[in-house]
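Section 3.1: Structural characterization of target chains.
Under the original work plan, the team committed to producing a structural model for every single-chain target entering the pipeline before any wet-lab resources were allocated. The record below documents one such target. The sequence was received from the expression subgroup and is listed exactly as submitted; it comprises 338 residues.
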Amino acid sequence: TQHIFFLMIRRPPRSTQSRSSAASDVYKRQNQLKVLNNISMNQYTFVLLTTLLIIGTSSYEYEYYVLATKWQGTVCAKENCQNNLVKDLSTTSFNLHGLWPSSSKGQQPQNCKNSGVQLQKLSAEVQSQISQHWSGLYDSTEKFVDHEWTKHGSCWATHEFGNGQNQVESVQTQELNPDAEDSDVELRKHKLQHHRQRDQHQKNHSHKNENNPRIEANESEIQQQESFFRQSIELAQRYNIYEILKNHGIQPDNSKPLQFSQIFSILADNLRTQTFVLICQNNRGGRQQLFEVRMCLDLQYQTMDCPTPLSRHSSECKHNDSIYYPVYDVSPRKAFST
């Protein structure tokens, strides 16, 4: 919201004034100066608070998640999935793509830390869960989950472990208090400078993260990584697309065409939202196959209508074309591909 202030000052009459009139004008001018000073302070406060509101959305802040899972039957029908990466993979759930902290206010929270993931440092239990539900399929699993942690999970951790949105909101509430005394201006300036420096650091960090060597995670960060992986996998199982479709009579079948409306209606009824996105991928024979489902979750991990439409994907399923839901063959090199 923009505010524009207008100040109108009447020019004194050009005729010669009496002493009483002149004195009265001086008094009026003093009052006008007071008004000017008050407006100047109000304008300063307004600009300051508006600036705080604009930059207040730090790299950590987000208000919902996007959960993305993809069907390995479609992936492996096109890619050369590696036996060693899929030997433990679940055949009754979609493989995780990621859990992405998201914001409807513009810049997405990404790359909040630069500590890398080393699978061998995670507990055996978490490693097993990853191999079953978060495989790289045709490329290194460690590389895949490292990317997802660094880009998205690190920002999840700053919120879950007390360095994220809640702190930012408490500062914003304090700074946007209209009854604050003028003596707080210096404190506000200090906070504003702190926000600018922190956001610039995060901005620089996010650009450099992908090219810089990963910093070795300490024990606390490893625990945060494990918490993120556990939470993401639990959500993929809670909103198990495979099981939802199976419970409504739809199972992988290389030759049975499905209608978009058929799949969408089933998922909409079970997820209790219609703002999820179905992404398809054409196989080598040109058939449209169900590839990925993306949905929005609130901060309590319940499905919700996305605050803003999910970014349009070039491979969103075409509504008027048949969709195939291919069988996932545990021998990936023999997966259906024609």
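The first helix runs from residue 19 to 55.
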